[in-house]
Write a structure and sequence with these properties.
CATH topology of the largest domain: Alpha/beta knot
Largest sheet: 7 strands, parallel
Distance between the termini: 41 Å
Oligomer: single chain
Strand content: 15-25%
Order of helices and strands: EHEHEHEHEHEHEHEEEHEH
CATH superfamily of the largest domain: SPOUT methyltransferase, trefoil knot domain
Radius of gyration: 19 Å
CATH architecture of the largest domain: 3-Layer(aba) Sandwich
Mean pLDDT: 89
Strand order of the largest sheet: 7-6-5-10-8-11-9
Helix content: 25-40%
Low-confidence stretches: none
């Protein structure tokens, strides 16, 4: 199968999540032949029960498949989600009564992006929107950190983020930015509406054109001495507050 039609995923959590939620997407699965512990035996048993054949491989073979990463002795080739663009995103919005989107403006660290995808999946976000420039891409590192979430949360990579936000607003979605100096607290804002929550890069924050598209901005109240949160932690606080206000 052509490389463009498969993604390499590694790590026990990431592959375990795919087996649990979409085993039909697993094309091939390899496990290291020199490891025999409970976690790997459990994953092998789950794969066997689902009819997914586990092929034995050496550490060197897995390294060639996954690259120089901590693969934890298991690597899979999976059928990827169809990548989204602006048109897919806007079409999907017409099918969702109460959209919850996460917008990441300038998150270039793959570990942060992976953690944000994991958070978005846990909070029930319908999609994550990224600019094609000044952003990490969904690569193997992101997939490992996301612990399987990257295989389920749709990611819309857009050419022009400001223009995409304009189009999202036209479909009745409120754009809410997060900013440390905002006057309004996250917890005082009405987030129980069609919503796109925007977070900027740590330090730099949202770009000017992105901020201008926001209907309003909020801050996460900080009680300690630190001035800001890691972007994935901030995404979790914001998305779960929106979920709480929606009753769930």
């Amino acid at each position: 199968m052509a490389e463009s039609k498969r993604h390499v995923v590694y790590g026990l959590h990431a592959i375990g999540a795919i087996l649990a939620r979409a085993p039909e997407r697993v094309l091939e699965l390899w496990a290291v032949d020199s490891r025999d512990d409970g976690r790997l035996r459990d994953l092998r048993a789950r794969a066997d029960a689902l009819g997914v054949r586990v092929q034995s491989a050496s550490n060197d073979s897995l390294a060639r498949l996954a690259g120089p990463v901590a693969h934890q002795g298991v690597v899979a080739a999976v059928r990827p989600l169809k990548p989204w663009d602006e048109h897919d995103l806007l079409d999907r919005l017409t099918q969702i009564s109460q959209p919850l989107l996460l917008v990441l403006d300038g998150v270039t660290d793959p570990h942060n992006l992976g953690a944000c995808l994991r958070t978005a999946d846990a909070a029930g976000a319908h999609a994550v929107i990224l600019p094609k420039d000044r952003s990490a891409t969904v690569d193997g590192v992101v997939r490992k950190v996301a612990a399987g979430a990257a295989e389920f949360v749709p990611v819309a990579s857009v050419t022009n983020l400001a223009r995409a936000l304009d189009a999202v607003k036209e479909r009745g979605v409120w754009i809410v930015g997060t900013e440390g100096g905002a006057a309004q607290s996250l917890y005082a804002a009405d987030l129980g509406r069609p919503l796109a929550m925007v977070l900027g890069a740590e330090g730099a924050g949202m770009r000017r054109l992105t901020r201008e598209r926001c209907d309003f901005v909020v801050r996460i109240p900080m009680a300690g001495q630190v001035e800001s949160l890691n972007v994935s932690v901030a995404a979790g606080v914001a998305l779960f507050e929106a979920r709480r206000q929606r009753g769930g």
